[in-house]
Amino acid sequence: MLNSIMLLALLSTASAEDFTVLAEEQPAPFEGVLLSVSAAAEVLTKYEVLRMECDLEVEFQLDKSGTKCKLDKELLEARITTLDKQYTEIVAQKELVIEKQQAIIKKQSPQYKWIWFTGGIVLGGATYYGIQQAAK
Questions:
Q1: How many angstroms separate the CA atoms of 82 and 94, rounded?
Q2: 60-93: per-residue pLDDT in tens?
């Protein structure tokens, strides 16, 4: 395999002067390696076969990567949609809780508000008076 690759490399860089076809029992005009017609055909076509295999592999890997990228994008879009729905539901729940709490606050009678307010003032004043008496 290595020899045929090296020979292929040599043939691909060979000029017209380095390559000739000889008839049987005809002397070669230069020193080199002599191949049969079938061996020469194999060497000359091996490059084309390897190039086609490489092109197919590159195309396969590109398609594979493109498909994976598309799948990842679709998964991210689905995740975004799910998180968006989840966010909307949480906001709706929070708004419902706020509305219920506001309704509870409005339900309380106004007399209780004044009782708490008055009690706070009286207790605050009593505490202030007690601290002043203790300080004397």
A1: 18
A2: 999 999 999 999 999 999 999 999 999 999 999 9
CB–CB of 29/20 below 8 Å? yes
pLDDT at 12: 54
How far, CA to CA in Å, does 92 sit from each of 45, 96, 100? 71, 6, 12
Cβ contact 4:47 at 8 Å? no
pTM above 0.85, yes or no: no
If one counts the domains in the chain, the total is 1
More confident residue, 52 or 18: 52
Enclosing H/E stretch for 32: none
Structure tokens at 39: 């061996």
Beta-carbon neighbour count of residue 43 at 10 Å?
A: 19
What domain range is 129 assigned to?
Answer: 2-135
What local confidence, expressed as pLDDT, does residue 15 receive? Answer: 45
Q: Look over the chain and give the mean of its residue pLDDT values, rounded to a whole number.
A: 82
